[in-house]
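Researcher: Batch entry, complex prediction.
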Amino acid sequence: MKEHSSEAIHVIFGFDPMWYAGILFALSYLLIMSERINRAIVSMLAAALMILGGVLTQEAAVEGVDFNTLGLLTGMMIIVAITQKSGIFQFLAIWSAKKVNASPWGILVMLVIVTAFLSAMLDNVTTVLLIAPVTLLITDALRINAYPYLFAEIFASNVGGAATLIGDPPNIMIGSAVGLSFNDFIMNMTPVILIILPLLFIPFYLIWGRTLHATGEDRQSVMNYQEADAIRDKHLLWQSLFVLALVITGFVLAHDLKQQPATIAMFGAALLLLISNLPGSASQQSKAVGNIFSEVEWITIFFFIGLFIVVYGIERTGLLELVAYEVLALTDGDAGKTAIAILWVSAIVSALVDNIPFVATMIPLLENMGGVLGQEALMPLWWALALGACLGGNGSLIGASANLIVAGFAERAGQPIRFLPFMLIAFPLMLATIAISTVYVWVRYL
Amino acid sequence: MQTASDIMDSHPVTVHPQDKVKTAARFIMAHRYRRLPVVDTDNRFVGVFGVDCLLRLVLPKAVVMEDGLNSVEFVRETLSDLHRRFKRHEDEPISMCMEEQEVEVVHPDTPLLETLLVLYRTRASLPVVEKDTNRLVGAISYWDAGKKIYAAEV
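Model: Structure tokens for the complex:
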């Protein structure tokens, strides 16, 4: 838990700081949900108003920013931006499609596995950004509907992302705030994901699998793809794989090395920038580094910075402590009941609104509960929050950024994924994954 | 002041949104037009149709879409595959693939140098459109501009 500096809060115009911060927080939440104003703009404005209004000093605001989350996100974004230039993602997608003789159902299974694996090891937004176009190319060649594939990839990206510390922003935030390591996530999140992912194939098969057919000729056109030619830069491929392996090993050993994940990700990013740009001239390097930096999702990064400050603001006024007591009163202060409640509430909220601000708010809320429940009793709550927030993203088309990206591709390919038809299948499926998670949390921790 | 109207061709060849892709494509290929202005029945400018559009129809959607694949070296296709893909669309109206947004146009009173700059940026024939009515009044090709510049007294 963060140490709060003890200076008194003086809010402008004599407003009650709790009210001022609470209203500012609620307004920015509403604005983010309305999607009328870019979320980075909303969070930066709200953060500035938190400081200008007197809830936080600038020093206190900086204290509230979790640089470990930012560093880990940015570092991984840089590594992925460089790695993807090698063509490895297209290679994996085509290679896996050919492994199953380009059979339509086999391809769906393989693409789900590839998407889930890449989402766990990298971030899921980049994964779908790279897998969705190949999927469309393949379904176009097979002359089959792309919808089942894109739907399944949305699920795979959110389920796969839930498996590791680095897979999904909620995990990064929780891991960073609580000090949970990469290995903690592997030990606690990955097992339940390995149960959920294969089970998802049952509904996928019943809904779509039986009706997917392609002619032998069309399948042959996919079999004619030369996956080796998808690798555009072999040298870069080996450099990227080397750094990725180093970084993942770093994450595994981070706890023993007493290092934070952000340091490891940033070191990996810097190392890959270095070796992929040698022996270029200074001006070539500047251009290449500039290009890579432009691929970092700055909207997300600035959104996070503002958000951390806003949430720190309401936390400092004591508002979240109050809410924490209220929630605990509802669940009779029972850790088990609280964990299950958090799992379901997080899932439903994350299906309908952006899970990042939700998790950012829940973290200090749970930390405050630690005062009553004890820090040890908090552990199931953290896993419940991570599972709910990540898996809940599958509940609707707006539940996660990856969903919207896939929907964008579907729209451009002339096979749009509509909000309600998607939700009609996705929401119950998401609830099923939460039901499995409930059993897991109950059996393992309570 | 010399303007776009001094170098434009006042009787440009046009196509209509409901023309079939097949017909427009044949016409473009036969005359080697890069692109043609598309006008409605009132001669209002609605977009351009040209070789970009035809190329989009023979390539897979996954390649030409925004954020699509930027390399397909791994795909082995033949001319027949391309023709087959084109055939799926040839009976559709050209409105399905004409460019409507972000098409650069000039107005009859656009100054000469600005017109040439837009021509340089666009690298294709420029529609000349009346500001208020959006009616097409002419088109400017490289050759129109080149001939006029050459013919001018030094």
